[in-house]
Design a protein that fits this description.
The protein is α+β, with helices and mostly antiparallel strands. It contains ten helices and 17 strands. The chain has a domain at 3-74: 2-Layer Sandwich (Alpha-Beta Plaits), CATH 3.30.70.80. It has a five-stranded mixed β-sheet with strand order 10-17-16-12-14, with no helix packed on it. A four-stranded antiparallel β-sheet has the order 2-3-1-4. Strands 9-11-15-13 form a four-stranded antiparallel β-sheet.
């Protein structure tokens, strides 16, 4: 009786044939009990090369002796172990707020995978029946002390289009997420896979984005008049800090891990409007035609405005691209708005910086007399030469004794492939 075996082939290699076809060819060369396309269960094409296939013991043994095959081993069925996202993010199951504000909130998400007919939306559940019944299997919730970590196939910075805007903005759960799945899509994305399911275990940005979208809607339900930039600022400045380690740094995780419970009361926000983003495009060298394609209106660059840089955008984080082997100095102009619970408040700046950086905040103290009052400050950063393929991080934290308004900064050089 054929069993499912995992065939590991190491790192991805350049080839004139697609990885999927290479895997099929290997199965063709050892004849198997069924056609190669029927034998192949899954083709792994991201971080490494390999595939899963239905094989007999003899077929698995023959395949293990082929050139280019590192190992062949039986696939294991593991007991389901889950961590609920809201628990992982320390998100309360119940909050106190004004009930009417929970409705009529629409958050645009530039991603895919959500459609009105999905079984994950309540309106399509069997709850329309008179006596609905459902079976929910018990699962085991686990906690990993090393989490959160950024997966190896997650897109990293720097921002190649606008180097002085830090990307990514923030990190959110996106690995092995139980989520709705289209019935017209293959379960494994293989052309010969004809299985149909309503749910699948999915990984990627398409899973992390809905988490951030939901958090944005949650913040919006408390602050109906906040702009998208203010909501983004609240999410970023209250994110749970993540720290550099093997394979990850600020160019991997941005401001840190999403922390929705804290984002409702950030204390200060870095706000910005459409005109601020138009100015950033102007400072980045976009002409009038290009800008109007982006904005869809008659926006243009003001001739009276001096040319600045993209890092002048009132963004909650700061990034600086420098040449390796050369000393550097730059300034970031920022404006914060008081949205804390107290009208009168005083904030003091704290800087935590890599020893290779000299970071100064001026002024280092801010005083607010009213809600929604704005205050400006400058962050200056300088340092000696940095080698190639390097990053130097820093953090600016504004505190009034209750709130910690945290902005990450990273200075980085060119990265060779």
């Amino acid at each position: 009786m054929p069993q499912v075996y995992i065939v590991y082939m190491g790192a991805q290699h350049a080839s004139r044939y697609p990885t999927y076809e290479l895997h099929l060819n290997l199965l063709t060369e050892i004849p198997v009990n069924c056609s190669p396309s029927e034998s192949l269960v899954s083709s792994y094409q991201r971080s490494f090369s390999g595939f899963a296939a239905k094989l007999s013991i003899d077929e698995a043994d023959k395949l293990s002796k082929r050139e280019g095959i590192i190992s062949v081993f039986r696939s294991k069925t593991l007991k389901l172990r889950t961590t609920r996202t809201w628990d992982f993010l320390n998100f309360s199951h119940s909050v106190n707020r004004n009930p009417p504000l929970k409705s009529d909130i629409i958050i645009g998400m530039l991603n895919y995978g959500i459609w009105p007919e999905s079984k994950s939306l309540i309106r399509d559940w069997d709850l329309r029946q008179r006596n609905p019944v459902a079976n929910i299997q018990k699962s085991e919730a686990v906690f990993d002390s090393e989490a959160p970590l950024v997966t190896s196939f997650s897109s990293r910075g720097p921002n190649l289009i606008t180097p002085d805007i830090l990307k990514p903005d923030i990190s959110a759960p996106g690995i092995d997420i139980l989520a709705a799945w289209s019935r017209v899509a293959s379960v494994s994305n293989l052309p010969n896979d004809t299985r149909v399911v309503n749910y699948n275990i999915i990984s990627g940005t398409s899973m992390a984005c809905p988490h951030v979208t939901g958090a944005a809607a949650y913040v919006k339900s408390f602050h109906q008049n906040w702009s998208p930039a203010a909501i983004m600022s609240a999410l970023m400045t209250t994110a749970k800090p993540m720290y550099p380690s093997a394979g990850q740094d600020q160019l991997s995780y941005g401001a840190g891990q999403l922390n929705p419970a804290k984002a409702v009361d950030p204390g200060l926000v870095y706000d910005a409007g459409a005109s601020d983003y138009v100015q950033m495009l102007c400072d980045s060298g976009y002409n009038e035609t290009m800008i109007r394609i982006v904005t869809g209106d008659s926006s243009s660059c003001s001739s009276s405005t001096s040319i600045g840089t993209a890092r002048d955008l009132n963004h909650p984080s700061m990034a600086l691209h420098v040449q390796s082997g050369k000393a550097f100095a730059a300034k970031f102009l920022r404006t914060v708005t008081n949205v804390g619970s107290a009208r009168r408040s005083k904030y003091k700046a704290e800087v935590r910086a890599d020893r290779r950086l000299n970071v100064v905040v001026n002024p280092s103290k801010l005083r607010f007399l009213e809600l929604n009052e704005k205050r400006r400050f400058t962050v200056s950063v300088s340092g000696g030469p940095l080698p190639g393929n390097s990053t130097a991080p820093a953090t600016v934290i504004w505190s009034d004794g209750k709130h910690l308004v945290r902005s990450v900064m990273v200075v980085y050089t060119d990265f060779s492939s």
